[in-house]
Amino acid sequence: MTQATDLPNGPSEEEIKKASLSEAAKWYIVHTYAGHENKVARNLKQRVETMGFETRIFDIIVPTRQTIKVQGGKKEEVSEKIFPGYVLVKMILDDESWLLVRTTQGVTAFIGAGNKPTPISEKEVEAIQQFMTQEEPLYKTSFSLGEAVKIVDGPFADFLGTIDSIDETRGKLRVLVSIFGRETPVELDFLQVQKI
Fold first, then answer.
1. How far apart are CA 147 and CA 160, in angstroms?
2. pLDDT at 154
3. Which of 112, 158, 181, 185, by CA, is between 20 and 30 Å from 17?
4. CA 47 to CA 64: how far, in whole Å?
5. What are phi and psi of 74, to 5 degrees?
6. 8 A C-beta contact, residue 172 and residue 185
7. What is the rounded CA–CA span in Å between residue 187 and residue 144?
8. Which of 196, 190, 193, 195 is nearest to 70 (CA)?
9. Which of residues 24 and 162 earns the better pLDDT score?
10. Would you tell me how many other CB atoms lie within 10 Å of the CB of residue 8?
11. pLDDT tens column, 76-119
């Protein structure tokens, strides 16, 4: 016969209550000053803890994605905001929780119809979270179509050309290079060219 002391500790009543409240919560979009998204998320998390709102505000997400930016001939991985000026908050909306979020420094408004915040669907949040974790980095470049560039690497080094197409997902450019008086398209990596 097993005694109660032999049973593993399951979730406490408080954890069960919080989990069921979290299921009742909805996701809302909060508008912030541009560039203040991370600061708003930090401040809001701190306020939730200090004011005891853990049973009404459950999650705060600044949607970002790791991308590769090419600048000055170097690749660097940067965290890029998917929706600059917006933060996602999972919460049970009532007057007090609304006021706590709305009065957090850097928050300008809730997104919704009129003065009423409108929740977004769980499906939309899942799509955003999936996009945030996608493996393939997106290459960001400062090149533009029709721009004159100098090839700095590869068999066409020191040739000049014009950008014909840009493929940011692969980090490639098609450059029209003048060879023997004819323009020939050549596919190059972002790092193989530089602005003139």
1. 11
2. 84
3. 112
4. 22
5. -120, 145
6. no
7. 15
8. 190
9. 162
10. 4
11. 778 888 889 999 999 999 999 999 999 999 999 999 887 789 99
The pair of structure tokens assigned to 164 is 């014909």
Q: How many CA atoms lie within 13 A of 44 on its CB side?
A: 30
Q: Position 123: which residue type?
A: K
Cβ atoms of 57 and 48 within 8 Å: the answer is yes
Contact in structure between 151 and 193 (CB atoms under 8 Å): yes
Q: Name, in order, each residue with C-beta under 8 angstroms of 28's C-beta and a sequence gap of 6 or more.
A: 88, 89, 90, 91, 93, 101, 110, 111, 112, 117, 118, 119, 120
Q: What's 106's DSSP letter?
A: T
The C-alpha atoms of residue 20 and residue 39 are separated, in whole angstroms, by 29
Q: How many residues comprise the chain?
A: 196
Integer-rounded Cα Rg, in Å, for the chain is: 25
Q: How many whole angstroms separate alpha carbon 192 and alpha carbon 73? A: 8
Q: Environment class of residue 57 by beta-carbon count within 10 Å: exposed (0-12), middle (13-18) or buried (19+)?
A: buried
**Is residue 145 a contact partner of residue 166, using CB atoms and an 8 Å limit?**
yes
